[in-house]
Write a structure and sequence with these properties.
alpha+beta, Rossmann fold, Tumour Suppressor Smad4, 2 domains, 6-stranded antiparallel sheet, 35% strand
């Protein structure tokens, strides 16, 4: 029997509209029976998944990290296998899982059926795949419009970061984990579940999405230009060894600030401090390349 798949493609993703027809053709050629649904608002993806959960064998989501983040709560609730078609700008989750950006290859991986249980991050009731953060990254998210991402692609992240960086000011926060407490003056706190975020930067050099831990770094610089020598190390996740960076790991982490700060999960602002972060081990199954 042909597997029944719910295909959800974000037409507003960078490659969404042009990728939809190619994805349908590839998947049908591979033997999938497809139910196609689209929504103008990614926040409705969870409702669509729950509506079809008894009629399908898996969910295939085409889009970027924000689209996947919009679907993740329903994937947890239904425990349906997840297939990923990387059609966004950064595709950091696909990068973490080794899923190639070409649609035919991504479809082949889904058809091969190699299921891997992965961890999820959780903050204040919201799941995330890659990273949840506050500070500088939130300002980048707020400025990084759909038009900018569509025009500049992956370079949009670096260009937008440079625009907001020189205006950034440190803020005070208290971080608690492993029965320890730290008061920091920082421009960014990032808590990672996977390895990549922000267009290919690494949270920790050895992070994996099934290591059952969260990786936190706090970027404790006083002047915007101090981040410039850090940038190459941030691409490799080795910034954690620099004096200006505080790094720690744990299964549960709390962050407190004097006023409520917005928190970005996988590129979308979804909650505010105070925040409790947790790792949820082996939370869902994703179709990935064989090891």
């Amino acid at each position: 029997m042909n597997p029944r798949a719910l295909l959800l493609v974000n037409r507003h993703a960078r490659q969404g509209q042009q990728g939809l027809l190619e994805a349908i053709h590839c998947l049908e050629m591979l033997g999938f029976h497809l139910i196609q649904e689209s929504t103008e608002n990614p926040k409705h993806l969870g409702d669509v998944i729950r509506r079809y959960q008894k009629e399908i064998d898996l969910v295939i989501v085409g889009g970027g990290d924000g689209t996947l983040n919009a679907a993740v709560d329903a994937i947890v609730d239904t425990q349906l296998p997840l297939g990923i078609l990387p059609l966004g700008t950064a595709n950091d989750l696909a990068r973490t899982l080794g899923i190639p950006n070409t649609l035919p290859e991504a479809c082949q991986i889904i058809a091969a059926g190699n299921l891997r249980r992965i961890d999820l991050g959780w903050v204040n009731g919201k799941y995330f795949f890659n990273v949840a953060s506050l500070g500088l990254s939130v300002k980048i998210t707020q400025k990084l419009t759909r038009e900018v991402k569509r025009r500049w692609g992956i370079f949009a992240y670096a260009a937008t970061a440079l625009q907001v960086l020189w205006k950034s000011r440190p803020f005070r926060a208290e971080i608690r984990t492993n029965d320890q407490s730290f008061v920091v003056k920082t421009v960014q706190i990032a808590v990672g579940n996977g390895r990549y975020y922000g267009g290919g930067m690494a949270v920790f050099h050895d992070a994996t999405i099934d290591d059952q831990r969260l990786d936190l770094y706090s970027l404790e610089i006083s002047h915007w230009w101090q981040i410039i020598p850090l940038l190459p190390a941030m691409r490799q996740g080795r910034h954690i060894h620099w004096r200006e960076v505080r790094a720690m790991q744990g299964q549960e982490i709390e962050v407190y600030t004097r006023r409520a700060y917005p928190i970005n999960t996988d590129g979308e602002i979804t909650t505010y401090t105070p925040a409790v972060f947790r790792v949820i081990p082996r939370a869902i199954g994703v179709l990935v390349p064989p090891v």
